[in-house]
Structures are given as structure tokens and as C-alpha cells.
Amino acid sequence: MPIAQTASAPSQKTLTVMLWLVAVGFFMQTLDATIVNTALPAMATSLGELPLRMQSVVIAYSLTMAVMIPVSGWLADRLGTRRVFMSAIFVFTVGSLLCANAHTLNQLVVFRIMQGVGGAMLLPVGRLAVLRTFPAERYLPALSFVAIPGLIGPLIGPTLGGWLVKIASWHWIFLINVPVGVAGCIATAFFMPDSRNPDTAKFDLKGYLLLIVGMVAISFALDGRTEFGIQHATVLVLLILSLACFVAYGLHAVREPQPIFSLELFRIHTFSVGLLGNLFARIGSGAMPYLIPLLLQVSLGYSAFQAGLMMLPVAAAGMSSKQLATRLITKYGYRRVLVTNTVLVGLAMASFSLTGVNQPLWLRLVQLAFFGGVNSMQFTAMNTLTLKDLGTGGASSGNSLFSLVQMLSMSLGVTVAGALLATFTGLLPKVTEASSLPAFHATFLCVGIITAGSAWIFAQLSPEIRASAKKTDPSERT
């Protein structure tokens, strides 16, 4: 497949600057997925909203990224990596600036969607630029360098968000992106090599629209009752619409010569089990970064900065336990490790239903660290399982579908958590926004049950499947 590139080979300086550009872009994309979590109560106060009804700010960003991931690679092939990457930075930066100047919740949600459009293209297009510019023997080290900031972003996001709220205001969690974005646009214009594929196939617009409508419909169905007050009949119609769209995409993909995501991928046993397991297990994992800071601030009286600091044990334990997962998989196999660990993650989530005002600080820190450790091992095991048998033929399409599922499950996690919180706040006696601890308890219990139940998916694996020497894209191991 011929690829049009720059006339001369890029210099070492150009390659180095480009790596930093892609790495910083990935960092900002992943940082903004979690940095708002500890700032939600402060945002709610500023915008005149209730803290427990702010989930749309998080959902808008992650759902938009899920929607835009399938089209980002095609745009880079057709328009060129430099143009699309610069446009992504520009849109992300303008969206950040508008978010900081939002005066209503609806405005903030719309601007978060704009921010998500830019953010969704930063990693796929940047990674494509690295693949096409670096020689084969330097590809894996380059991609590993790009991946590290993306792993750090979600870990420090809640703490950084709480710190910015303390020393300034919630607006600065978006304003810090502006100078970085301006510098990124200028550097991209000078240092990002341009490449495109003149033989890019026609975009599967019909399949893309079916997927988009299905994802948006299910998100509105789960969140619309509490967020927008839509009626039960409308929720039912949206659920049926989403199911119909996904079924229609399956029928379409069978006939379409070049669908966005080929159904042949699901013939790979480890990929299909890993993808479905990721989708359902990550619902709980996506809910926790939203629920924990809210619990600490709304029900336990923590400040935004204190709530952010309490997320550090989760991050530290998560980073420390990553290597343990590989050793356990090699010894016991994917099935035993994932079934056991998924149940442990569910129990760790459910344990927050026992949280009380008088709980000792050391016990709370241990609880957070335990959740962070088992949750990190879950990600490592699920992700390597999903990608291990793709091979070169299905790597591109499989990676894109996997990235879409990651973003979609993050969005669904916050959607489910917000819906459960609102439901229990209304159902449980004597529960209000000010005395919401019982509603949080019930929500954590439900989220834990959902996660533990997904262990049944991993139980379908063969006990003999173990870690292999084959390397997967390190940027996906988050």
C-alpha cells in the first residue's frame, strides 16, 4: 500500500520533537478524562446545579471520544497526519477554553463534546504518525515512550484537579490546556512529518452511523431518566433502538466488503471474550473514579484537594501491581486469574458500601490501595488477553474496536453510577442531597455486583491459555 510521505527523511531533532508532541497530546487526552472528577462539586456550586447530577460532564467527553475513534484513522489517511493532528490539538484547545468560560451546565456539556472531538484523534493519529515515520527497529521504543504519559494522566488527574480547585478555581482544569495547545499547534506545523494514504478506501458511513446511533441511544436510555427526566416509554424506545442498530450493524458488516470493524475478529476466541469482558468489567471501573471523589466530598466532608490526595493510594497501588499480573497469568493462566481477580475487584467496589464517617483513615487508605491494586491487575490481564492473538492482519481494526469499547464502557460506567445514585436518592427513606451516604452505599454495592458478575464471561476461557511472549501495543495497557 503506497504511502505518500515527506520528500526527505526527517532529522533526529524532528523525530524527537514529534515523539514529545504525540506523548503530550496523549497525556492531555487521558488527563482530561479524570481531572474533572474531583472538581464536580465545585463546578456544581458555580453553575447552580446539584453535585450528584453532574455526570453528563464526564459522559459527554468519554462518549464523544468513543464516537470519534473509528473515523480518526480514516481522516489521517485521507487528509494527512499533520493536518489532522494539528486540527485535533486546535479543536481540543478551543474546547478547553470554552469549557472554562461556560456559565451553565448545558454549555459545559456542549463544550466538553467539542473537547472530546479533538481529544479522540490525538492518540490514534499521533500513533499512526509514529508508525509511518520511525524505522521498524525503533517503533516499539518510540511507542513505549508515547504510552508512558498516557498511563500517568489518569492517575494524577483527580489529585491535580483537586489542587487546582484549591489554589485557584475549577476553570483552571481547562485553562491549563490552552498554552500547551498553542505550543502544540506551532510545533506540529514545523516538526510533524506529513503522511497520507492515496489509496484510502471509501469510508463505511452506513456502518459508522449505525454504531454511533446505537452507542448514543443506549447512553441516553440509561441516563435520560435521571438527567433529562424523559419518560419510561422513551427509555424503552431508546433501548430498542440501540439494540436494533447494533443488530443492523452486524447484518451490514457481513455484506460490506470493508466494514469499519469486521465480524471476523470475533472468530478469535481470546479477542471476543476479552472484548466482552472489558465492556462489562470496565463499567464498574469507569464508575469508581466518578463515585469515590463525590463520596468523599458530598457525604464525608472532604475538600476537593483532600479528595484528590485520597486517590493517590489507588494510583500508587495500581502502578506497583502491574508486573504481578503477568507473573500470575504465566503461572495460573488467564482464566483462573481473571475469574478470581474480577470477583475481587467487585468485592473491593462493594466494600465501599461499608464506608462511614467514623472509619479510621488508615483503613480507608488500605481500602483504596486494595481497590487500585486489583483493578490495575484486571486491566493488565484483560487487555493483554484481548490483543494477544490478533496478529498483524487484525491488529489495526482490533485495536480500534478495543479503544472504542474502552471509551464506551467508561461512559456507561459513569452513566450507570449517576442513574443509580439518583434512583437511590429518591427511593431510600430520609435520603437527600445533603445526607446521601445511604444512596452511595447502595450504588457501590450494585456496581460491585455488576463487576463480579462479569467473571462469568472470563470463565468461558480455556484454562490452558497463558501469557505469551508476543508483544502488544503498550499504549493500550491502561
Automatic annotation (TrEMBL):
Cellular location(s): Cell membrane
Transmembrane domains' residue ranges: 57-77, 84-103, 109-130, 142-164, 170-191, 203-222, 234-254, 266-284, 290-316, 337-355, 361-381, 401-427, 439-461
Keyword DNA-binding in record: no
Keywords, ordered alphabetically: Cell membrane, Membrane, Transmembrane, Transmembrane helix, Transport
Membrane protein topology class: Multi-pass membrane protein
GO cellular component: plasma membrane
Top-rank taxon, per record: Bacteria
Protein name: Transport protein HsrA
Protein's gene: hsrA_1
